[in-house]
Design a protein that fits this description.
about 350 residues; about 75% helix; mainly alpha
Length: about 350
């Protein structure tokens, strides 16, 4: 993730035109899909562990809902064109407003998880949740190509249309991206069902089925895509979506194979998994900046050599790693104080934003 965004922001165009760069772009496209796929699996496993709590508006459910709304709000904050409530409401140009309401990764993840939690509240049945998830997965696969040229802005307000429309410059419209999350829920349900029976056999079947899907999509994908109206097969193609989901399932099987042989998970992996949101926000602020800070892209916008870009990438990784160590240490020793400081900081930013 950090490497791909660093290359996107800083690497000069002459290097980006090299023959290897399209391969890099294609592989980098799996990062967000993996986030959503993993989020679906994690959601399913954590929900099933405390199912009775999450099928009602318990304190745990409310906390989860607030967390998902927080993801969406952070996404909008990162897209703020100007730090002023009145100017955002009344003074944005059409381009600035479009930039502000774009659906990005955090918007997509937050909305998808919030929607899924509402499904849990309504269904109150793990089996029904699985059936609905499979139905949404199939729906995503079939209809996404039709959405490529559909003018959602004619039926929805612009902020809502951006969650569905490819034409409004959203990087992560809900379709096909919500499909990756429901792919994870689909796999997570089956994993939870067979984990105590024969987990090895489950991953064998997952590998075999994933390979079959990949092979079939390679040989028959172009024929199926040709049945749809003109669309970008890489961004909105149903076959590309299901193929990527199958690849992610293979990756999951490989990770299981590796971790099954490891007795102790390295601390850096545990830290990274616990602080993935913080890592995401930090690296975006460093590279792209925000409405209250400048980023490296403002200084070196696609002007650096491959060597310098790699050096900055490594520097960012090291900086974030040591920041996380300090962060976790401080949370352990000064948790109440940090919560108060965080709340004070957020309230101060909100006050300045409102009165500015």
């Amino acid at each position: 993730m950090i490497q791909g965004h660093t290359f996107d922001a800083l690497l000069k165009n002459s290097v980006r035109s090299a023959s290897w760069f399209p391969i890099h772009d294609y592989l980098h496209g799996y990062v967000a899909a993996m986030f959503l796929f993993g989020s679906g699996i994690a959601f399913t496993i954590s929900t099933f562990k405390k199912w009775d709590l999450y099928i009602s508006f318990s304190p745990e459910t409310k906390k989860r809902i607030y967390r998902y709304i927080g993801l969406i709000l952070i996404g909008y904050f990162l897209h703020l064109p100007i730090f002023s409530f009145s100017k955002v409401v009344f003074g944005l140009t059409e381009i600035e407003y479009l930039q502000f309401v774009q659906s990005d990764a955090l918007h997509c993840i937050g909305v998808s998880l919030l929607f899924t939690q509402l499904l849990v509240l309504v269904s109150k049945s793990q089996k029904l949740l699985f059936i609905v998830s499979a139905s949404i997965l199939l729906f995503t696969l079939v209809v996404t190509p039709y959405f490529w040229n559909y003018k959602f802005v004619e039926i929805f307000p612009l902020w809502l249309a951006s969650y569905f429309s490819f034409q409004l410059k959203s990087w992560f419209p809900l379709f096909p991206w919500i499909g990756y999350l429901f792919s994870g829920i689909f796999v997570g349900y089956l994993f939870n069902k067979y984990r105590k029976k024969n987990i090895n056999q489950f991953f064998i079947w997952l590998t075999v089925i994933s390979l079959i899907i990949i092979i079939l999509s390679i040989y028959f994908g172009s024929i199926i895509e040709s049945l749809y109206p003109p669309h970008d097969i890489w961004k909105s193609g149903g076959i590309n979506f299901i193929k990527q989901a199958a690849v992610l399932s293979l990756v999951l099987s490989f990770i299981f194979l590796v971790t099954n042989k490891i007795k102790t998970i390295p601390k850096i992996i545990l830290t990274t998994s616990r602080q993935s949101l913080l890592i995401y926000v930090l690296h975006l602020l460093i590279l792209y900046g925000s409405v209250i800070s400048s980023g490296l892209k403002l200084l070196y916008n696609r002007s650096l050599s491959l060597e310098n870009t790699l050096a900055i990438y490594l520097a960012i990784v090291i900086l974030i790693y040591y920041f996380l160590q300090l962060w976790e240490s401080a949370k352990k020793d000064y948790s109440p104080e940090m919560k108060k400081m965080g709340l004070i900081t957020i309230m101060a930013l909100i006050i300045v934003f409102v009165i500015n």
